[in-house]
Amino acid sequence: MKFMKFDEPVFNLNDKNLTIRKGVKWFTKEGCFEVQDLDGNVLAIAEIITTRHSRLPFIPFKMLNYEHLRDCRSYDGLIRKLKKYYGEFDENREFFTLIFFKIIKVLSDKQDLEEINKKDLCDICRSDESCGIQGLAGKQDECNYFLKK
Fold first, then answer.
1. Residue pair 74/149 in contact by the 8 Å Cβ criterion
2. Structure pTM?
3. What is d(CA 100, CA 68) in angstroms, rounded to the nearest whole number?
4. Are 47 and 57 members of one domain?
5. What pLDDT is attached to residue 1?
6. What pLDDT does residue 107 have?
7. Which terminus of the chain has a smaller tally of CB atoms within 10 A, N or C?
């Protein structure tokens, strides 16, 4: 089975997630994959919903709301995190693959995988802590996390 490694395995277990990887290796992939930590421990099984490829400036901001890491839900945060893993690159020229996936089976009792599932997420910012407001889709002026950006 295919696998994908995650340094910070925190996911929304009730909805789709997004991870963004440099290059196009994952672009044509479909089906399921193992979610692994950096040591190769299998934490979950995920199913790919869809993939897209794009240069970073052309990724619609709304798509970043599904990024599994809160730090990557802004362009600046995403670029910082990608440069941490991939080193320097030209964000205007390099292609990245957006992989939307859903966790379908948790195989680990790791707290990180369970924690986000226990909290409701804001419909606007998908925050699990900062906002505390659920069910306000389309009301960005009432979302505390969104207002802080």
1. yes
2. 0.73
3. 10
4. yes
5. 82
6. 84
7. N
pLDDT tens readout for residues 8-60: 888 988 889 999 999 988 887 889 999 999 999 999 999 999 999 999 999 99
The residue ranges of DSSP E strands in 1-149, in sequence order, are 2-5, 17-22, 31-36, 42-55, 95-106
The rounded distance, in Å, linking the Cα atoms of 137 and 139 is 6
Residues 130 and 145 sit within 8 Å (Cβ to Cβ): yes
* Helix (H/G/I), strand (E/B), else coil: 61: helix
Q: Where are the beta strands (DSSP E) in 6-148?
A: 17-22, 31-36, 42-55, 95-106
Domain hosting 125: range is 119-149
Residue 104 and residue 45 in contact, taking contact as beta carbons nearer than 8 Å: yes
Instruction: Tell whether 101 and 142 lie within a shared domain.
Output: no
Together in a domain, 109 and 123: no
